[in-house]
Amino acid sequence: MERTFIMIKPDGVQRGLIGEIVKRFETKGFTLVGMKLVAVSQELAEQHYDVHKERPFFAGLVKFITSSPVVAMVWQGDGIVASARKIIGATNPLASDPGTIRGDYGIDVGRNLIHGSDAIETAQREIALWFPEDELVSWESHTKSWLYEK
Ligand code: IDP
Ligand code: MG
To answer: pLDDT by residue (tens digit) across 25-45?
Structure first.
């Protein structure tokens, strides 16, 4: 089944929003298959945001992500990559719809609380970067037959 990489950034952890953010994915019906608190190294931050390395905000972004712990997660479910991006909201929290995580809890694009993979291939790359295979747990929720028709 489809999986995505979700990270609660340092601002989300510092602001005590781990529970609120996890709850959104849990109550949607998605399945948590990996989760850890991480003090992100410079190297991991640079690899994770490699696609943005030429952007003017890159240095500040890496400094921010390495400044305080993050919660790294892998979630699973049908259509989860695109659905998670909708749950998260637009990159700039002021442009994010109310009801999204960034729309409800953020203001500044540099403090937008959460990361979610933007495509299936990106998700595969990010999951492999953050989680060795033995840290991911395949399990079936007892709610599955109440969430999926087939
Ligand atoms: P996304 O997180 O919604 O996928 P991206 O464009 O991939 O957004 O940018 C990655 C991250 O870089 C954003 O979540 C945000 O933290 C940061 N970022 C993006 N654009 C800016 C900017 O213009 N100024 C400061 N930080 C930015
Ligand atoms: Mg992105």
So the answer is: 999 999 999 999 999 999 999
The reported pLDDT for the residue numbered 135 is: 98
Cα(142) to centroid of ligand 2, in Å?
32
Distance of alpha carbon 129 from the chain centroid: 13
Question: 58 CB less than 6 Å from ligand 1?
Answer: no
With contact defined as beta carbons under 8 Å apart, do 13 and 68 qualify? yes
Distance 138 CA to ligand 2 centre (A): 26
Closest ligand 1 atom to 90 CA: 3
Q: Are 117 and 126 in contact (CB under 8 A)?
A: yes
Question: 110 CB under 6 A from ligand 1?
Answer: yes
Residues recognised as catalytic:
115
Residue 118 Cβ contacting ligand 1 at under 6 Å? yes
CA distances from residue 109 to 20, 71, 77, 92, 126 in whole angstroms, order as listed: 20, 19, 28, 5, 21
Of all residues in the chain, what percent are helix, strand and coil, respectively (each to 5)?
50, 15, 35
Q: Residue with structure tokens 């991911």?
A: 136
Phi then psi for residue 114, to 5 deg, are -155, 150
